[in-house]
Design goal:
alpha+beta, four-stranded parallel beta sheet, 11 helices, single chain, 17 strands, about 25% strand
Length: about 375
């Protein structure tokens, strides 16, 4: 407990943009957010007052970090499960807990658990040899999707393989059928230790090169019954896995319904639109959930909300400050969030959110703003 404010201290392991935006939400709640960062260059370090440095795989560093925290949570899923268990066994409140977090860390465990729950998933199989991959591909059809069981994100650790392609070496793998999808969707839900849940509207996510470039809220043209089914599916998964905090369920919309693609147990890129576009942002909601506060309202603040990621562009051109000047002069309603990252081509360095009444018009504004910030064109 922070003796100055009488409010809890939340520790967030990881110092990236999710911690940075969680810190911004914590300010309004009077919370003290402590950040465990890997480097002074991490985005959250530039804004947070209470920063410690350490490796998220180092149990001793985690124990030191957790001292004085009322609850510990994460801005990524890479803390070893054993370390999370050790912290909880020593009396630290950790959300989400190790038993839940496993299913966001281990794709094989996630597929096994969702299959046991009867959730819709692609046909899949663990594989350890080219012969097993070929047998699976011959069964479900080629090409097949091969995924690293641990560690993949933003298109990394995912391969589309044909019959004669070699398997990636040195990693545990699962193979999945290539799903014929109409589009990609996402649902975010928050769940508290008490068991209260709150679901956000279903959104459409647009991917290019394995990276999310746009999020459209609400998902255009989604039948109401399917939207309710997607929200209920996410709530059921959060409850069955005993998730505490935010859960993002990435979905494929297919002929006849939905298929679960991935899970993330933290604030997620598909929910950045909620900062301006929902009554309660995903970052505030995550804090409410891990602190066992009542959940906030999740309804939209406008009929159409679009978030566009800002990626690092080629070197040169006018500086980012001048780009902001031009953008705000052109579109005063655009909301910009920059993450304090060093710019590298293709790296997520921020996002832009636009709100309005017409989805096509709002989408064009968001895309134009993100492209201008990336390229200066």
């Amino acid at each position: 407990m922070d003796t100055r404010t009488g409010l809890p201290v939340v520790g967030m392991v990881g110092g990236g943009q999710l911690a940075r935006m969680t810190h911004q939400a914590a300010i309004a709640l009077g919370q003290s957010l402590r950040v465990l960062a890997a480097s002074p260059e991490d985005g959250a370090v530039l804004v947070a007052a209470d920063v410690q440095y350490g490796d998220h795989t180092d149990l001793a560093a985690l124990r030191t970090f957790a001292k004085g925290c009322d609850v510990v949570t994460f801005d990524h899923e890479h803390v070893p499960t054993e370390a999370v268990r050790e912290l909880a066994a020593s009396g630290v409140a950790v959300h989400p807990g190790a038993d839940a977090l496993l299913y966001a860390q281990d794709k094989r465990a996630m597929r096994e658990r969702l299959s046991a729950l009867g959730a819709p998933v692609p046909r899949w199989r663990p594989i350890s040899s080219a012969d097993e991959a070929r047998a699976f591909g011959d069964e479900v059809g080629w090409p097949v999707v091969v995924k690293a069981v641990r560690g993949g994100y933003d298109g990394r650790g995912v391969w589309m393989l044909s019959p004669d392609d070699p398997l990636p070496a040195g990693v545990e793998l699962i193979a999945e059928e290539r799903v014929v999808l109409r589009r990609e969707l996402a649902v975010q839900v928050a769940r508290s230790p008490f068991g209260q849940v709150a679901a956000y509207p279903v959104v459409e996510t647009v991917q290019r090169g394995g990276i999310c470039v746009e999020v459209l809220a609400p998902a255009p043209g989604l039948p109401p019954a399917l939207a309710v089914a997607a929200q209920q599916l996410a709530i059921d998964i959060a409850t069955a896995l005993d998730v505490v905090g935010m859960l993002a369920v990435e979905l494929f919309e297919v002929d006849g319904g939905l298929v679960v693609n991935e899970l993330a147990m933290r604030p997620h890129n598909s929910g950045h639109w909620t900062i301006e576009g929902a009554r309660t942002s995903q970052f505030e909601q995550h804090l409410r959930a891990v602190l066992d506060y009542p959940m906030g309202e999740t309804s939209l603040t406008a009929p159409a909300v679009v978030m566009a990621n800002v990626l690092g562009g080629p070197p040169g051109g006018i500086g980012i400050d001048e780009r902001l000047h031009h953008l705000f002069a052109t579109d005063p309603g655009a909301k910009v969030h920059l993450y304090g990252k060093q710019v590298r081509p293709g790296r997520k360095i921020g996002h832009v959110t636009a709100l309005g009444d017409d989805m096509d018009e709002v989408r064009a504004r968001a895309a134009r703003a993100a492209r201008w910030l990336q390229e200066g064109l």
